């Protein structure tokens, strides 16, 4: 397949300072566009709801998509498709197609990697395999609470469960319980002091290989996309993932600086991988993480759907 990448003609410089650590691309940053793209037809291919660690229910995702004028939106909750049916029903009522998706936490030789599944035609096929991850998320949250108690913070599992309200439980819920208890000021401090990968209350999740994650996604009729690769998105790592089923790369993401966007675009083009992008919305009302903030061309989504139809839906 050719031409799945973005054009590499001198891209308009993104208004971000290069060389800084993780730079938020402002909402006004021009997305790399292709000739022939319908002007102003944008999608958002990465968003969460209360089915995982988002703060808004699936119906609100659709309401926001309508409000910001998106032509389609994907729901990609962590390790669950439990919100998809409600989002789809709301999307049908509002006339905005909802793309069934998921964000799977997995591991490759480079460490933890998040794989987005997009354009799933049989999301229900994931429900059972993913239920195992839901269970391990609960036991892991209990381990995190124990570690925090050992550090002298009397946060309880009940408080954490109350924050998750039945959704796929994760570190952001622990962070909210820590904030509510007054032990940290904000989300940032919770991760910097306790919950981040090298911090004292960090506990790993289930060990799903990236290859297995991609097999699950393909089995549900969708394409597998390397989520927010950032600086880890090297040619070698993406090539290794492509060898075991990767279909595309998330080029546009709020954590990406101009250099990331340029490198990932070039690698996608070189390896004939799909491009993707989204705000990674968790309910933020504004900023680059607001829904639609990455201005992802609708054309990218159409190409993804075409590839899924050609490769993964033959057994329907
Ligand atoms: P979990 O799935 O429980 O490992 O939690 C992962 C989620 O926590 C991510 O999707 C982000 O929403 C959030 N997160 C992970 N690392 C950080 C960090 N260093 N700072 C702030 N939030 C983070
Ligand atoms: Mn999250
Ligand atoms: Mn992620
Ligand atoms: Mn995400």
Write up what this structure looks like.
By secondary structure, this protein is α/β, with parallel strands linked by helices. The protein folds into two domains: 42-127 and 208-311, Alpha-Beta Barrel (TIM Barrel), CATH 3.20.20.140; 130-195, DNA polymerase, domain 1. The chain contains ten helices and nine strands. It has helices spanning 58-67, 84-94, 124-150, 157-164, 171-180, 187-195, 210-219, 235-243, 258-270, 298-311; strands spanning 42-44, 72-75, 98-100, 102-108, 111-118, 223-226, 248-252, 274-277, 296-297. It has a five-stranded mixed beta sheet. Helix 9 (258-270) links the parallel strand 7 and strand 8. The longest helix is centred in the middle third of the chain and has 27 residues, at 124-150. It is globular. The model is unreliable at 1-37 (pLDDT under 50). Bound molecules: adenosine monophosphate and manganese (II) ion (3 copies). One manganese (II) ion (MN) binds next to loops.
């Amino acid at each position: 397949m050719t031409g799945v990448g973005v054009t590499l003609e001198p891209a308009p410089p993104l208004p971000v300072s290069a060389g800084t650590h993780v730079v938020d691309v402002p909402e006004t940053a021009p997305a790399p566009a292709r000739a022939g793209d319908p002007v102003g037809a944008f999608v958002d291919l990465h968003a969460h709801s209360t089915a995982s660690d988002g703060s808004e229910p699936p119906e609100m995702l659709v309401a926001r998509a309508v409000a910001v004028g998106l032509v389609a939106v994907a729901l990609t909750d962590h390790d669950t498709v439990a919100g998809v049916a409600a989002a789809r029903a709301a999307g049908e009522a509002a006339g905005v197609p909802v793309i069934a998706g998921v964000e799977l936490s997995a591991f490759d030789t480079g460490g933890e990697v998040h794989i987005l599944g997009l354009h799933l035609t049989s999301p229900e096929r994931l429900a059972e395999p993913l239920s195992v991850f839901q269970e391990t998320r609960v036991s892991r949250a209990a381990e995190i609470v124990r570690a925090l108690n050992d550090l002298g913070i009397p946060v309880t599992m009940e408080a954490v469960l109350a924050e998750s309200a039945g959704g796929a439980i994760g570190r952001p819920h622990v962070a909210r319980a820590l904030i509510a208890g007054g032990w940290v000021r904000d989300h940032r401090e919770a991760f910097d002091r306790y919950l981040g990968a090298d911090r004292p209350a960090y506990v790993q999740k289930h060990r799903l290989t990236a290859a297995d994650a991609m097999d699950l996604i393909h089995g549900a009729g969708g394409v597998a996309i390397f989520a927010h690769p950032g600086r880890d998105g090297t040619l070698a790592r993406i090539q290794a993932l492509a060898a075991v089923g990767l279909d595309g790369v998330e080029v546009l993401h709020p954590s990406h600086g101009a250099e990331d966007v340029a490198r990932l675009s070039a690698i996608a083009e070189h390896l004939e991988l799909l491009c993707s992008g989204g705000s990674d919305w968790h309910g933020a009302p504004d900023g680059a993480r607001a829904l639609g903030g990455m201005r992802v061309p609708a054309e990218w989504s159409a190409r993804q759907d075409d590839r899924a139809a050609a490769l993964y839906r033959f057994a329907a």
